[in-house]
Amino acid sequence: MRVRPGHRRLTTCVVMLLYGALLANSQDRSLPAASMELLTLRSKIFANTRTIRVWLPPAYHQASQRERKYPVFYFTDGIATFHGRRLDRIAKQLILSRKIPPTIFVGIDNGGSTRESKSPGSDRANEYLPYPDDSLLPPVPSPQGKLFPAFLEQEVRPLVESRYRTTSTIGIAGASYGAAIALFTVMEHPGRYQWLLLESPSLYIANDALLRRSETLQNWPSRVYVGAGTNEGEGDAKREMVDDVTRLAKSLQNRTTTCLVVVQGAEHGEDAWRMRLPAALEFLLGDEPCTKATARISDKARKSGSQATSK
Length: 311
Known about the structure:
With 311 residues, this protein is α/β, with parallel strands linked by helices. It has ten helices and nine strands.
């Protein structure tokens, strides 16, 4: 078993924030109103209680749109998705500028954000790791991540679809461990998801188990976006992240439409993922070519002293 130095530093810590402050910071009063609704989910699968954050696109509640149905894009790490990555603000701007179609975005709070959590880091890892991560401290020797696809399909989706006007078109996204479980979920349900967004995925776990499995899967989402930076973690972890996402993207080349973006100097965290999010959504939902998505990211990266490349 290879132990990869530096990966233990990659686990994202999700900070609990007051939702009122989050919403106040994320809205632009000059634009037509979108809305955020909070649902409470008591999971029988994980035996805990969490918030499901449902962002509804502008005009969802207008009388003229009452018959319209919307695709749904699910994100792991719900709090970080809307606060750290500012998905609500970014989605609103992209929809109003007609760069992506109106879409419902759902942030699923992780295990560390549940009412019952006493160890947020370990509880998050427990739900997001389908296999053990030998570099994780404190260790989680028997993680329950293999239950996450059932949790999403049997508990989260029915809750959302029973309350909102949705189509059968769905996507899933995540970062770090959240990306690892998004990838695992797609592989557990081939052909079910149309979009897959992976940021800095933890592909090294269990001796590259996710990578090895991905190389044999044939039925992928119609569009897959993978983003990473060259300065993630310490030591060998920096090179290994780039090698791993490159290997994943190459394995998908002839099986789906894939966009791999690697940003020189980008680190492992919300700032990097937020910078890449608009272009990722335009590629996935707006059917924009990867080259244009990369150009947009490069423009932002140059302002911060970085450089983006696509492969």
